[in-house]
Amino acid sequence: MPNGSSSGRNSSHTSAAEVEADDEDGWAASASGTARSAGLEVAGLDVIDAPRAASMLRATEPGDNRANIPAAALQDRGSINRRELERDLREALNAGQLHLHWQPIVNCLTGALHRFEALVRWDRPGVGKVSPATFVPIAEALGLFKQLDTWVLRTACAEALRWPLAYRAAVNISAHWFQGEDLSHMVEAVLRGSGLDPSRLEIEVTERVFIDNPGNAQRELAQLKALGVGLSLDDFGTGYSSLSYLRTIPFDKLKLDRLFIENLGTCRRTEVITRAVLQLGAGLGMAVCAEGVAHQAQLEILQAYNCDEAQGYVIGRPGPLTPERFALYTRLDRSSLFMGPELLEPDPRNPA
Ligand code: C2E
Ligand code: MG
Ligand code: MG
Hints:
By secondary structure, this protein is α/β, with parallel strands linked by helices.
């Protein structure tokens, strides 16, 4: 049974020194946690001084442990070896040093598997595991996000083609795509190249897509939807946006950020917000997926609230999708986590 690590996501804006590293599958040490434990190194970067790491992390927005490192900082000679990092990231993309871990997303009541979320992993030679919370923002700052996301999408589609038709793949897409107009073309080309039915793909984006160019984001999301892919709004409740975009953007799912889930059972205000989001989702026809469900007690509260979907360590950690793990998650008798054997029937809401 997984440990209940406190993720520290909710405190990353106050002080890097307060933040605990996630222990997840060994990959999710947040940049802040690494900065504290390693003193002179932020995972994935070369040499960096601790106060500088702390100030970078303080610069990240509340509720987000991603190291939001501006390009200018990456060019600052003496603090970070930008060229080596860029070279290593490019090489990782070209030489197949990246790989995918998969985390199951299930029906919250029955445990029936709906899909797996692809989470990219980098084993940087000479450095070790680098968390995507660290290197995805760097790939964005270096302009490598298109190459990264395209590789992830292509790999995920190829993998999903081998699964039974009932299961879908969810893929994260960087908000930086929404400054341009080529995301839907890329997704269309990858789908066509792979042969995966668009209905078996779910694209996850965060509220950040609405910040720079909301009009463009709206157009791109509508085009993705027109391709037949599903759209999920990731990390819901922690971004900068207003609710107004929910009136017009055809999201299929809201993924309630784990910041809310980790306080279920201990914070009445969080529970009020969680129930309100569930009501919002139900009213708008958007399923709500609870992220970061790490404890049985949280799962039970979400079940009592009639939450649609759950994802988190108590259900399954991210990992390679071996045949054994696949068989484990597609079995319907994982009853100890869920409400009872009588509910463990095939899920009619899960599209075949
Ligand atoms: P996300 O899309 O919100 O993914 C969920 C994150 O929560 C993952 O972290 C996952 O390992 C972690 N998580 C899942 N269950 C639990 C839990 O019960 N407790 C806790 N504490 N954490 C849990 P990960 O893999 O480190 O990814 C971090 C973020 O990096 C992702 O957040 C996503 O925004 C980004 N990312 C990951 N893969 C990709 C990718 O292929 N492309 C892009 N553009 N971004 C990616
Ligand atoms: Mg996601
Ligand atoms: Mg998320």
